[in-house]
Every structure is written in structure tokens, then in C-alpha cells.
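Sanity check

After download, print the first record. It should look like this:
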Amino acid sequence: MLKGIHISLFIGPVVPVPVPQAVIDALASVKVTTTSGKASGFELKFNLSKKSPLHTLFLVSGAVTPPFIRVLIVLTINGTPEVLMDGVVTKVQIGDEQNGMSVLTVIGEDLSKVMDFIAFTGLIPYPAMPAEARVALIVAKYAVFGLVPLVIPSPLVDIPLPTQQIPYHQGTDLQYVKKLASRVGYVFYVEPGPLPGMSFAYWGPMIKVGPAQPALNYDMDAETNVETVSCSFDSHMQEMPVVMIQIPFTKTALPVPIPAVNPLRPPLGLVPPIPKKFPILADTAKHNFARALMIGLAKSAKTADAATVTGTLDVLRYGRTLKARQLVGLRGVGPAFEGLYYVNSVTHTMQRGEYKQNFSLSRNGLVSTVREVPA
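Expected C-alpha cells:
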């Protein structure tokens, strides 16, 4: 790897252990992708000879599940460790034989995958338990993997009376947790770290506030850290969903438009596009006003980010890794697209002598709402 950058790799069933030096020497490339609203994934490629000890890894990973084959990737930049991935192997393949050497590819997902293997439909009751309590109880089952529940209570208080209804588990743990999140406009994902072997299972609203990461600089001479960048603005993307609210006494449905206004997602652009579509969410009429409002806000947020930026970052010049699900400043691309953005996804690509990050940013409109961004 590059000077100042060191990768530590841990592999093992349930509790990963440091791999031998022969495995590190055979490591050809590392790819880790983190995306907002989706599970993170990784891909490891090894140079494989016929007598390599990696054949054992291939056999064990392909045949022994469970126990889960867990992979922990820790990146150290200038002495500061960072957990890039804590996940499990989902696929192993061998191919691309050249000069007597093959390539062993290990593919996997983050620890949310372990919650998606066994369906408990109709087997677990949740009497008098709100959604956040159910989520905390479900995540607690995976403490052996270092999963710590980070649950934000919903403003919608919905506790069914046991004499009227007892909710039961539906689908796998992951499916049920995501279903509960979608009901109140929340998201669920697993964030590795901050310590190796530890991860946070976040269930709560998508938050687009907080301190911004150091700026991405393009075409700024010595301060440049972005190699390529592409900016776009889709003026036809914006939608304003209409939720239907049922009036109890008359049983009539009242349409209520939901603008893209949310204190947890403040506007980052001064000039947003004008909504041109007004989809009607007819199924919201069966919910109370609070739940219908949360569903409408979540739907509106999905189409609010009309300005997008993609590019490639030089990690060594940046001095740290760019993190997804946080804010970052962008400079050097003109007044229309400069300013703060939300980092939708980041893909780490590492091989010997090179470390790049592909990123995808978004915000609601053009022209920055702030005069300066953190350098």
C-alpha cells in the first residue's frame, strides 16, 4: 500500500482474527461501497496460486454458513485507524487465471446481512410495544456480532392495546425492521466502528445536518484533491406528494400537499426546482394524520435532491477518507454548484500504489446557502 496508509484484515467465523502475512501479501485490491439508505458492500481480490493457503478460505467461506464468515477491514491513515467494513461473506469465486495464478474474489455485505437469513413470521408477539422498542429488542439478538442499537423514537406514538391487537413479527428481522422504519419515514442501516468489532444499527430519520467534512477542491492548483468531477441539475425531478387525510366524522378524504420542508434536512441550495408532479398517496387515508405526514415527508425527500455531483477523490491529497451519510463542502466548480452537499455514496478502491474514492453528492438546488465551507 501507499506510504502512510496501512490495511489490517481480519477474517473468521463470528469473531474475526488477524489473517496471516501470506494472505496480506496475496491481497491485490480492496473495494468498499457505502451508500445512504442501502447496505454497504465489499469486494476483496487475492492472487491465488495452486498451493496458496487461500484455498482453505475459499472452501470454508463457500461451505460453512452458519457460522458466518466475518470480514473486518481496518484502514490506518497517518496513524489514525478507521473501520471501513465489518460484514459477512456472501459469495466467493475463482477466475481470471494468468501465468499460473488465479484471482480469488470474496464478496460480502455489512452486518445487516446476518439479520436477513431466518424468517420469524408469526412466531414472535410484541404486546403493547411501540416500533422503537421492537427494533431495539430485535437488534439486541445480534450483540454477539458487536451490533449496538441506535434507535431514535418516532414522533408518532403508536402503542396498540393488547386487548385490541397484538403485532407479530413479519419476515426476517431485517425485513421487519425496515418495514417499521418505512411506516414512519425512517431509515435503517448499519454503520461500522468506531472500534473494531463494533457497529451501530441506526433506526431513525435521515439526518442532513451537522458539521461538514473538509472541502473537496477541484481545479484549485495546490489545494486540488479531486481528480474528476461531473455536476448535473434535473429540474423535472422534484415532486410534491399529496397525502389523503380522512376526516373521522364525515369519512371524507382531504388532500394535503407535502412540500420538501424538514428541520432535519434543511435546504442546501438557494434555487430549488419548481415541483411539476403531484402524486397522490391514496393509501395514506387509512392512517392518522401524524403517520400520513411522516410518509409524505419521506416520499418528498426522495425527489428533493435535484442537484447531483459525482467524481473521483485522491485520498492522499485529501488527507483522510470521505464519509458517506454526512455533509461536505465543494469548491472550484462555479457558483451554481459550489457549497455544501450531502454525501450519498462513497466507493473506496485500493490497490498497491493507489487509493481512490468515487463519490456521489446531492442537494436540493443550485447556488450555495452558505458563503464559506470548511477548508
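If your output differs, re-run the checksum step. Summary of this record's structure: The chain has a mean pLDDT of 86.
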